[in-house]
């Protein structure tokens, strides 16, 4: 089977033509158009069963694209906020770092018997934000709720990635719903 050239390949359509570096391959008029870095004439190829990516190449491309989409969706969902016993908090990367630090400080204060631990948190509400100062127990509640949400997001991403990696065809990969089933 003759495969389509890939970007960066040193390629010629036949043995009588000097090879050139492929710039891109585009779907074109029922076939394929190969453009070259030197800006010279393009080469048009028919779309027949002897030309094109192999099923294994199609599978690898579909898997790579699906895994990238899963990673992107995971990041968006993880950063969408989390409901805690005290209210909804932001969960972007910076907020998660601050919550982890506050959680560790709350555990430390409990371990050392400190009774005056106070940590301000900003909670997201429909009409804006409110700041509330929580004691150690309240801070632990926020940390545990955020950790549970991030863990649920990670588990969903891992399950989807496993399904994508186990797929045996590009069509099977494309049939996997990577947008549904994430925590709200």
UniProtKB/TrEMBL annotation:
Determine the domain of life of the protein's source. Answer: Bacteria
Q: Name one Pfam family in it.
A: DUF4376
Domain DUF4376 span(s) in chain numbering: 61-176
Protein name as annotated: DUF4376 domain-containing protein
């Amino acid at each position: 089977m003759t495969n389509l050239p890939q970007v960066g390949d040193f390629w010629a359509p036949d043995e009588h033509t000097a090879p050139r570096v492929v710039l891109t391959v585009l779907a074109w008029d029922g076939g394929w158009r190969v453009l070259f870095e030197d800006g010279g004439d393009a080469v048009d190829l028919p779309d027949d069963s002897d030309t094109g990516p192999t099923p294994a190449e199609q599978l690898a491309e579909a898997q790579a694209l699906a895994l990238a989409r899963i990673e992107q969706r995971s990041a968006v969902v993880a950063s969408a906020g989390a409901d805690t016993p005290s209210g909804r908090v932001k969960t972007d990367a910076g907020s998660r770092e601050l919550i982890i630090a506050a959680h560790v400080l709350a555990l430390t204060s409990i371990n050392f018997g400190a009774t005056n631990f106070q940590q301000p948190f900003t909670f997201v509400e429909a009409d804006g934000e409110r700041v509330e100062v929580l004691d150690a127990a309240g801070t632990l509640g926020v940390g545990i709720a955020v950790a549970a949400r991030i863990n649920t997001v990670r588990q969903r991403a891992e399950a989807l990635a496993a399904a994508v990696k186990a797929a045996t065809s590009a069509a099977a990969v494309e049939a996997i719903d990577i947008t549904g089933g994430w925590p709200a």
